[in-house]
Amino acid sequence: MKKPDTLISQEDIEARVNELAAQISADYADKGELVLIGVLKGAFIFLADLSRRLTIPRHIEFIAVSSYQHGSVPSGAVRLVMDVRASIEGRHVLIIEDIVDTGHTLHYLMDMLKSRNPASIKTCVLLHKEHMTEVDVDIDYLGFTIGDEWVVGYGLDYAEKDRTLPYIGIIEPDD
Ligand code: PRP
Fold this sequence. Notes:
The chain is α/β, with parallel strands linked by helices. The chain has 3 helices and 9 strands, in the order βαβαβββαββββ. Strands 4-3-2-5-6-7 form a 6-stranded mixed β-sheet, with helices on both faces. A 3-stranded antiparallel β-sheet has the order 1-9-8.
């Protein structure tokens, strides 16, 4: 099986993650501990790299959601599969996502987590397929804007394949 073509190289990801970490560290300096919530599974590598480059106190949490399907087509409805363990009330929260496609996942998470009264809640997203967006979501820290290619690697999969590829690759779904 051929290796996916490169869309974003390992070096470019690393440089952008460093920039995002520096920006977040500056923005949250003197605000106390930042709660990072990684959205499983796709965000696990991005969260691991980003969190290790922050220079501020941080607390790591994970959350998992699933999209309801009508046959093979996502319906836009999202359900919670695994919640965070900690209370976020009165705390500064940053949601970490690998990709925003239609926007439904992040929209659902923002609504749900805002209702728990955090001190603030923002989003950090590695990839945004902006032309695919169906619901508007605020992305406060963005890695890269991409087209509507099918992307894998750095946490993203196609049918669970290629998640641990060190770069963002493009595949044809029947590769
Ligand atoms: C992906 C990605 C986001 C979501 C974005 O998750 O990690 O959570 O889709 O899509 P949306 O903007 O259209 O809602 P996926 O369902 O592939 O699960 P995974 O992260 O476990 O692979």
